[in-house]
Amino acid sequence: MNASAPSADSLRAALAGLLDGLPPHRAAQAVERLIATYRGTTPTDAPVLRDRSDVAAYAAYRMPATFEAVRGALDALREAAPDWAPRTHTDVGGGTGAASWAVAGAWEEEPPRTTVLDWAEPALALGRELADGVLDAEWRRERIGSALDLADTDLVTVSYVLKELTGADRAALVTEAARAARAVVIVEPGTPDGYERIIAARTLLIDAGFTVAAPCPHSGACPIVPGADWCHFSARVSRSSLHRKVKGGSLAYEDEKYAYVAAVRFPVTPATSRITRRPQTRKGLVLLELCGPDGLARETVTKRHGPLYKQARDAEWGDSWPPEGRDRD
Ligand SMILES: C[S@@+](CC[C@H](N)C(=O)[O-])C[C@H]1O[C@@H](n2cnc3c(N)ncnc32)[C@H](O)[C@@H]1O
After folding, report:
1. Ligand 1 pocket, 144 CB below 6 A?
2. What does the pLDDT look like over 95-150, one tens digit per residue?
3. Does residue 3 fall inside a structural domain?
4. pTM here?
5. CB 218 within 8 A of CB 270
6. DSSP 214
7. Does the beta carbon of 99 sit less than 6 angstroms from any atom of ligand 1?
8. Which domain does 241 fall in, by range?
9. Is the CB of 97 under 6 A from ligand 1?
């Protein structure tokens, strides 16, 4: 029984023993096969995570990164809706449960009761094992498709799943999530195509009556010209020894790029603007690239701006801006 709180560290500790007994080259091979599969043409018509070694490799290699990406999205949602907390949560395509760990960590004082749905039984089995004593979760086999019928829930998370679905299943899932939930958080890789899937999901959620809580400052059209750029963010993740084995190099961390949308059916206070690139710091000034109420903008904050300059120096990619500039209603 693992009685630790759900955090990046306790997840890492739970993952640490996972590859014991699996020869290192087998783990590295399994990761390489998964990476090749995920780079290839998806969706597939059967689970990619086929057996225990696939799932162990996936979990050890990817869970810390997807955990951090989902935490980034949830932290932005919490900032926009500080008084809201989900009592129930459904993690669709939840796999080994990274997003469920992130949800339990984000509302750690009173984590919601979670239901993890996935079609890969080995992933559910491992997720259940890792989360034993940490998450209040039920792990259930379920295929995502037009027949998906979600029970009503406060929060639905869909983390790194849309890419694995056909266009029709993607739309069916987002529409069903919008019907069943009060808040929906969708996370995808921070690539141009990941961003496009997020924008398509965002449109469906708005059409269903949702308000965008984050990252956007509004629920209007995205100001990015299609094909010209893509909205994405970055989360720092400590690298495990398996990472170093597969990817080589000795860096102690890597940056996980992700795109997301968090949308809700209740009043929220989105950021006035969001920082959409790593801030550039020069002598005596900070350059910020922002998405704001009037679209994309650049702001230069200098020493002359007083306390705002200090805040700009501390500001990070993905933060809301200005830090205390929220129009509370
Ligand atoms: C890349 S993994 C992401 C897992 C987890 N959400 C995370 O963030 O770590 C994609 C998950 O979606 C599941 N999945 C893909 N297509 C599915 C389908 N049609 N029905 C149910 N689950 C599906 C896979 O089995 C896998 O667990």
Report:
1. yes
2. 999 999 999 999 999 999 999 999 999 999 999 999 999 999 999 999 999 899 99
3. no
4. 0.93
5. yes
6. E
7. yes
8. 8-264
9. no
